[in-house]
Specification:
528 residues, Deoxyuridine 5'-Triphosphate Nucleotidohydrolase, Chain A
Length: 528
């Protein structure tokens, strides 16, 4: 993207150029000139200009360069040319970086004629002018104040270079006159009598048009500060960052309240998804029919309202979302992180869903895990997570989404399972063992049988240990009652006994297996 500044002498073109290069990391293009080798202070080859000898003026006076009409320099008869290489101009216009140059009105018009129609909004021509009338008295004051290199003594008003003043004054009038006849080639006119007012007005015009956010002087991609974030919210009009709270877009001042350091604070939504723990292990087949799989996943990941809080059990993980909805620019991505104050309690944000891609629109989804042996009660609206933003090398050309163009869960309060089957030929053509009913039943029966056998063995072990007391208890209380009961009662007692003992064996077996798994997990954690 290229911005071209033109205007009369001493209006502030060079000051504005330095302002945007130093403060906003703009780049510039070094012009070519046949100006004599005797230069003003700071005019260094390869920095201020590329100098070309008068004898070689045809090197830049050709179709490969944009140049104005030659003009006479001081007292010599040489015709001076100021030119920009066309390839440099084209590269700046097509670049993702921000470029700014100052040029004569003639050169600005030539650049506009050559590239403005085909620049696709990446080229802006701006004319800078004085607010006051361009009188000789006004211009003389500017000349004395700003062009000290032409002054010949300590008496500033009486010892100025009159010829140089006249030349500059005539050139300023000429620039204004040429502009007035060619305003159609310019995008904007900005007036001001002080350099700071010119720079301020240019900021208001230029910054909202930028495609890429100004960064540090070295322009190395990396983490953004709160000032960078506020720039994208407040001043950036194209591809800007938006924060919504309950469908209401936050103003700049409201957005600033939820910034802390380099992060956006995220509040917990009042709706979560809990991972249901079934009596029998769930069998999930990724290649299963989509409707069946969605139904099964919905039954596993139950949605729950936590307006009164939720007790997060030890080692439990829940699926959450933020109250805030975020619209990410295409050159920014985010990482969701835990807040240290909650990390101290044992809560962490799991990293599996923490990357927020460029172009994301919607709520931020993440997982919260209780890493302690204690139960922790959490509540909605607490700022449990934070979103850290980073700038990419180049803007992303497409946002992270599914075939419909957006994530299906972005408009939901809490994310269901992602549509990993969409356009997945491998899964569509995969064999589906989950459809084998006999195997499914056999697997479930095997799980229960293992738990029942473990329970029976443990119960039998207990009974053998207390066999004498158990036999006396049965002979004294149970057998007499059973023998004296009618047949129907005996059948009912037998059925109840079988039901109780089967569930008792199953419960004891499941309890023992869970305990052994817990012990093994803790041993592995200690070994790690």
């Amino acid at each position: 993207m290229l911005f071209v500044l033109a205007g009369p002498s001493y209006v502030g073109k060079k000051t504005a150029l330095s302002h945007f290069m130093k403060l906003y990391s703009f780049s510039s293009i070094i012009p070519y000139t046949t100006k004599p080798v005797k230069r003003q202070s700071g005019e260094v080859e390869g920095i201020k200009y590329h100098y070309v000898d008068q004898d070689n003026a045809t090197d830049i006076d050709n179709d490969a360069f944009i140049h104005d009409r030659p003009f006479r320099y001081k007292n010599n008869g040489d015709q001076i040319i100021y030119a920009y290489k066309k390839s440099d101009i084209e590269q700046a216009i097509n670049s993702y970086s921000n470029f700014i140059i100052h040029a004569s009105v003639g050169n600005a018009i030539n650049i506009s004629k050559e590239y403005r129609a085909k620049s696709k909004g990446h080229l802006y021509i701006i004319f800078l002018d004085y607010s006051e009338a361009l009188t000789e008295e006004f211009f003389r004051k500017r000349f004395i104040k700003m062009d000290s290199q032409y002054q010949n003594g300590s008496d500033l008003e009486n010892n100025i270079d009159e010829e140089q003043f006249r030349r500059r004054f005539a050139h300023a009038k000429k620039e204004r006159s040429v502009y007035s006849k060619n305003t159609k080639y310019f995008d904007e006119e900005i007036k001001g009598d002080q350099p700071y007012s010119i720079c301020s007005s240019l900021e208001n015009y230029i910054l909202p048009k930028l495609m890429v956010m100004p960064t540090s002087p070295d322009r190395i991609p990396g983490p953004l500060s709160d000032d960078d974030i506020m720039y994208m919210i407040e001043k950036r009009l194209k591809d800007k960052l938006l924060i919504k709270h309950k469908e209401n877009t936050l103003s700049a001042s409201e957005s600033k309240k939820i910034l802390s350091g380099c992060a956006i604070q995220l509040s917990l939504s009042s709706t979560i998804r809990i991972i249901k723990r079934p009596l029998i292990n769930n069998y999930i087949d990724m290649a299963q029919d989509e409707c069946v799989l969605d139904s099964k996943l919905s039954s596993i990941y139950k949605e729950k309202n936590i307006s009164l809080g939720y007790v997060l059990k030890p080692d439990e993980t829940i699926l959450c979302s933020s109250v805030e909805s975020i619209t990410m620019p295409h050159d920014i991505y985010g990482l969701v992180s835990s807040k240290f104050s909650y990390t101290q309690l044992g809560l962490s944000i799991e990293l599996g869903t923490s990357v927020i891609q460029p172009g994301h629109e919607g709520k931020i989804h993440f997982q919260i895990k209780n890493n302690t042996a204690n139960s922790i009660c959490i509540y909605p609206e607490i700022q449990v997570a934070q979103l850290l933003l980073f700038r990419t090398v180049q803007p992303s050309s497409a946002k992270y989404c599914d075939k419909t163009g957006t994530h299906g869960y972005d408009k939901e309060s809490v994310s269901p399972i992602s549509k990993f089957r969409d356009d997945n030929k491998e899964l569509a053509n995969a064999k589906k063992p989950g459809k084998n009913f006999i195997k499914s039943v056999a697997g479930a029966f095997r799980n229960q049988m293992v738990e029942a056998i473990v329970g029976i063995l443990f119960t039998c072990g207990i009974i053998v240990t207390v066999a004498t007391k158990a036999e006396a208890f049965l002979k004294t209380y149970i057998i007499p009652i059973f023998n004296s009961s009618p047949i129907l009662i005996k059948v009912m007692l037998i059925a109840i006994g079988i039901w109780l003992f089967s569930h008792l064996f199953d419960f004891i077996g499941r309890l023992l297996i869970s305990f052994v798994e817990f012990v093994i997990r803790k041993i592995r954690e200690r070994i790690r």
